[in-house]
Amino acid sequence: MKNRTKIALLLLSSFGLMACDVATNTSPKTDPNTTAQTAVVSEASSSDNVTKEKVETTKAEVVMKAKTTSDGKLILGEQEWVYIPGLKESFKARVDTGATTSSVSAVDIQPFERDGEDWVKFKIEHDGINSDEIELPVERWVKIRQSSAEGTQRRAVVVAWLQMGDYKAQTEFTLADRTHLTFPILLGRSFVNGVAVVDVSQKYIQDKHKE
């Protein structure tokens, strides 16, 4: 009986040593399938980031290039640069579709006659820009009623060249002293209609002219 007990104890002791040895020496095994899946997920995530960056870049390029509509009209912001070729100067302009005619800041306005036609000479003055005297034929006269003054004012309307981005055209300008206003040029419906669409949420969409 005693011998049987000893044998049983020896067997239990040996089994415990073996179990302990297995537990100590066994290290986690790497599943090749799991490794491959991790690599695929990582690669897909990287690919998604690259694709997202490309899409965002493309969107940015579209926004930058969207200076005209699909039918060729200018896209204008609430404020734009206007280049006057005759003066070789760029001016900040406010785009106002509520105004009928465009206007430009003019001082020393003097009407005169030439060959029986109405002409006017004036200078453009605003924010440190003082042009030489300009002489142009009067296209027509308009009467302006101002809320701050009694009666009406008679103002000359002239035609002059302007450039916005790559677009060049002649348009009518009413001559008015705008030296007390922020913008020396106001672009009204007489210029915008049929030529441009206005996005008041943006500013300076068209490129400033460079000499």
TrEMBL record:
Keyword Transcription: no
Signal peptide region: 1-19
Biological process according to GO: proteolysis
Segments crossing the lipid bilayer: none
Retropepsin-like aspartic endopeptidase domain sequence ranges: 75-209
Keyword annotations of the record: Hydrolase, Protease, Signal
Molecular function via GO: peptidase activity
Protein name, per record: ATP-dependent Zn protease
Source species of the chain: Vibrio sinensis
